[in-house]
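User: I'm putting together a teaching handout on how sequence relates to shape, and I'd like one worked example. Could you take PAC2 family protein from Nesterenkonia sedimenti, show the sequence you're using, and then write out its predicted structure as tokens right after it?

Assistant: Happy to. First the sequence, then the structure tokens directly below it.
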Amino acid sequence: MSDRQPFDLLHIHADDSQSSDWSVQSPNAELVLHGEPLTGPPMPMVISVAGHTDAGTLSEQLSTALLGALPHKTVASFDVDALFDYRSRRPHVTFTENRFSNYDGPRLELFEVRDAADRPFLLLTGDEPDFRWERVADTVLDLIERLDVSLVVTVDSLGLPTPHTRPIGVTAHGNRQDLIEGISTWSPNAQIEAGLSQMLELRIDAAGRDVVGYTLHVPHYLAGGRYPQVAVAALEYTGAACELMLPTDELREAARMVDADISRQVSQAPEVAQLVQQLESNFDQYATTNQRSLLVKQDDVVPDAEELGAAVEEFLRSQPGDVIFGSTEDEDSTDEEDTGTAEDEDRD
């Protein structure tokens, strides 16, 4: 390990045509910074990888929502050939008539993203590696130290016996008590199978850096499919912890459609309806009723729906015309965003 280069698992992406805080230093392709130090404040880092703790396909939905709506650039990508077992998780490829296309191989990438208020943050996302977890962890820690990352937030999800008719539950963990205290709806004492996210959180904590994680609870009977509700919840917790404005409009619309579809199917299957009723009874019996909202600071008064809506409208009016705020494009979309914000506060 002593001869290991700090970033020998990374392919560094440099764009000389744009102003960037990144460059490549030969001959070892080490990540270096333009200037000392960075001109802006330290950025937070969000980590979301698709592994066994990815119920409802959280990671893919989160990265698609962020990278599809917000300005971003690829900073670095991990060497997938050194990290993945292709035969145990075979990539997909499209065959059309007489040709192959759209090879969808594994990936693990680091992006610099700017939120709706033009605040930068780092996003590490992709597939959980099969090999070299310790080397990956060392590389991520090198990045965190080199960039003086202000806060690391991990988000993942588990399939649990909860009903889809109740708010998404969460288990908060980490070393920032102000970002986890009073947040969890369920905090068990248990030994569980570790994923890369949990291992990274442990290593980052041991290194003395600020780190928190939010594990979202997906109804177990919906864990195998795409469940937009869990992605909305993940973006809410991430945005609140990192003080970022993250897009959720399209995911909320998808969640409404999924809810309608689930309700229709449940109404047509009495045995499923009975199962949901039992889960509701258990949830209501054991659910935490005094969950704290990350959106409300200590001694703050919770604003009502009208105040929240006015605040969002005022923010949008103060921004340049090219600022992206979810999928908001006109007054109707703004009204929808206001409603969603108020609903979020009610839920929290």
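A couple of points you could highlight for students: The CA atoms of residues 178 and 294 lie 9 Å apart. The two ends are 46 Å apart (CA to CA).
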